[in-house]
Write a structure and sequence with these properties.
By secondary structure, the protein is α/β, with parallel strands linked by helices. The protein has helices at 9-18, 25-34, 53-62, 75-84, 112-125, 138-147, 157-161, 165-184, 200-206, 216-238; strands spanning 3-7, 39-43, 67-71, 88-91, 129-134, 151-155, 188-192, 211-214. Strands 1-2-3-4-5-6-7-8 form an 8-stranded parallel beta barrel, surrounded by 7 helices. Helix 2 (25-34) packs parallel to helix 3 (53-62) and helix 6 runs parallel beside helix 8 (165-184). The longest helix has 23 residues, at 216-238. The protein starts with a strand and ends with a helix. It binds pyridoxine-5'-phosphate (PXP). Pyridoxine-5'-phosphate binds next to strand 8 and helix 10.
């Protein structure tokens, strides 16, 4: 059975929408672990729109499974990782105005391979495992091996966004092929982005991917699975 990394960013999104102290992603991580999460994932963005430095500090001290922090290769982020020392850093590209991560790190672009190699070397020297978020593409898998990361997280966004069976099957085949290539090259194979309750099973059926990082769909479902109790609790106080 594959591992599940639960991404708790959007608990923090709700908190930041009001600038208050709740809901706190730290207890969300503990609840996810009690429910069987194998890993807690979060993304510290340069604009701090959801996860804050304090969250990382407390999560690093309290997560019982593994803390996987997604971040860009900026100097500020690398310094933060070296200070906080999560179990793993997943390097992702980041564009300031994007709504969410828009694609994998394109290591075929001039300079990116060197920049990512340097970041991986620094993180590994600090005792932090490294993963690369990459599109399911042969050149990106080969580049992930070259930069020295132990894990590739295949970007499943194009698969998740496909709106017809032909495109979905083509994207599934791309992921399967990249996953096989990565496993053969000795990489640990993870996948994520845009996965939800209705699209994850065909990927799981491939039986090649060893870990899934899923956030938005889990937090979105938690809103509805908890809403009835939340309303009842408030009614009880008014009564
Ligand atoms: N993996 C990576 C590298 C991501 O950037 C994200 C989004 O932060 C996820 C997984 C989780 O994506 P989603 O919230 O769509 O499940």
């Amino acid at each position: 059975m594959a591992d599940l990394g639960v991404n708790i960013d959007h608990v923090a999104t709700v908190r930041q929408a009001r600038g208050v102290s709740y809901p706190d992603p730290v207890p969300a991580a503990a609840i996810a672990e009690m429910a069987g999460a194998d890993q807690i994932t979060c993304h510290i963005r340069c604009d701090r729109r959801h996860i804050q430095d304090r969250d990382l500090e407390v999560l690093a001290a309290t997560v019982q499974t593994r803390l996987n922090v997604e971040m860009a290769t900026d100097e500020e982020m690398l310094l933060l990782a070296e200070r906080i020392k999560p179990h793993q850093v997943t390097l992702v590209p980041e564009r300031p105005d994007e709504v969410t991560t828009e694609g994998g790190l394109d290591m075929t672009q001039p300079g990116v391979l060197d920049e990512v190699s340097a970041a991986v070397a620094r993180l590994e020297a600090a005792g932090i495992r490294t993963a690369i978020f990459a599109d399911p593409d042969a050149a990106q898998v080969a580049a992930t091996v070259k930069v020295g990361a132990g894990t590739i997280e295949l970007n499943t966004a194009a698969y998740a966004e496909a709106d017809n069976d032909i495109d979905r099957d083509r994207e599934l085949a791309r992921i399967a092929s990249a996953a096989r290539q990565a496993a053969k090259a000795g990489l640990f194979v993870a996948a994520g982005h845009g996965l939800h309750y209705h699209n994850v099973q065909p990927l799981a059926d491939l039986d090649i991917i060893e870990e899934y990082n899923i956030g938005h769909a889990i937090i979105a479902r938690a809103v509805f699975s908890g809403l009835e109790d939340a309303v009842r609790d408030m009614k009880a106080l008014l009564d």
